[in-house]
Amino acid sequence: MRIVVALGGNALLRRGDRPDAYVQRANVVRVATAVAALAHEHDLVITHGNTPQLGLLATESVADRSLVEPYPVDLLGAQTQGLIGTLLVRGLRDALPGRRVVCLLTHTQVRGDDPAFERPTEPVGPVYPDKVADFLAAKHGWTVARTRSGRRRVVPAPQPERILECDTVRVLLETGSVVVCAGGGGVPVVSDWATGALRGVEAVVDKDLAAARLAEDVKADFLLVLTDVPNVYAAHGTPDRRPVLDVTPAELRATVYDPATMGPKTEAAARFVENTGQLAAIGALDAAYEIVHGRSGTLVRPELPGA
Fold first, then answer.
1. Which of 154, 196, 282, 294 has the most other CB atoms within 10 Å of its CB?
2. pLDDT tens string 246-267
3. By the 8 A CB rule, do 255 and 285 touch?
4. CA-to-CA dists, residue 270 to 20, 74, 244, 256, angstroms
5. What is the reported pLDDT for 306?
6. Which residues form a coiled coil (predicted)?
7. Count of other CB atoms within 10 angstroms of residue 71
């Protein structure tokens, strides 16, 4: 079976962790252990979040006085693919001795006319005091918005249209390699309509939606979305909270989930199942093997014929 695993943003930096390299090196052991058992039995593609790492690099870039302008978000995203990718490759090689493991820098094509470019919503970087936020917005042409934590820079989050390296991923899988790719949703690029030339854009692609796109493109049998809760919960945060264990895409969409946390995960799972007729699941990182074998997590399955 071919499985695409989407690691949550907390895989290498859990809530409350400092963003130090030694912390991420330690956490990658847990990640590698959780997914290695799947790699023994299945073809595996691994994607990952990058929010903490992207924020760290963005903060450093703004503070670097040797730069005329901070690095654009697409190039910072590419840096996080290398940073996180090398940690995952090392951890997986240790957990899977003798197995080929490769990290592939990945680009995600988006539409230049995607409505998201008119409505930036995705926070990048730290919380700024009001005066600093206003100064940086004026100096760099940023959009700054008030988020749950305070005023932050926000960038567009366009929909993933195509993973440009999906053919290469399929070739690597055919050689028996475990492939790490599409980190942080991939580097967002648009294609010139006349020449086909690629141009990076100041945006981020949701990593769960990119994982669903990748899973469809590489003809995966299973999309596994891993996070820090055992399953999806309906009415989360209320006394009526209840686990959702077996669901169709339509049933999943009947409930509104937090757009900052579970919302993209449920939408990614629903899209993959609808578009392929295959299975998806959402659950806890440490239960990855159990989820694939139907003993944990939330299973998202196609509508039964005649239902």
1. 282
2. 999 999 999 888 888 899 999 9
3. no
4. 35, 27, 14, 13
5. 60
6. none
7. 17
Contact 109, 200 (CB under 8 A): no
The C-alpha atoms of residue 294 and residue 307 are separated, in whole angstroms, by 22
What span, in angstroms and rounded, lies between the C-alpha atoms of 214 and 197?
22
Looking at residues 159-178, what average pLDDT do you find? 97
Give the model confidence (pLDDT) of 79-138 as tens digits: 999 999 999 999 999 999 999 999 999 999 999 999 999 999 999 999 999 999 999 999
**Residue indicated by tokens 């695409």:** 4
Alpha helices in 40-183 (DSSP H): 51-63, 73-95, 130-140, 166-174
Query: pTM here?
Result: 0.94
Closest CA to 256 of 232, 223, 229, 227: 232
Tokens representing 225 are: 């979305």
The residue count of the chain comes to 307
CA atoms within 13 A on the CB side of 2: 18
Q: pLDDT tens across 19-52, in order?
A: 899 999 999 999 999 999 999 999 999 999 999 9
CA atoms within 13 A on the CB side of 270: 17
Cα Rg of the chain, angstroms: 19
